[in-house]
Please model this.
Amino acid sequence: MVQQHGFRVLQYERMLSDFDTWASSLSEVLDIPLTQQRRDGLWALSGLGQAAQGEGSHIRNRNPGQFLGLKPQTLEQVNQRLSKIIPALGYSL
Model:
């Protein structure tokens, strides 16, 4: 969890790589106890237990960092446009 300017950011990558820590952080932010029932409900809502689907599907690839496959000029444009936001979210350019 990253805290910047009064905001708390829960990273998508953390949800994928360490769901329980992510769920604990979410419950902390919301000030709601994380019971097993709530944790299981979050897991079900996340769709992480579903199999990835084919191209054109929203659930295609859950691996963080897939943006690195972009063309260098596209990646440069994205980084340029988001240069003020990326560090605030806990990422590096």
Q: What stands out?
A: Residues 1-51 form one domain. Strands lie at 2-4, 7-9. The CA atoms of residues 24 and 30 lie 10 Å apart.
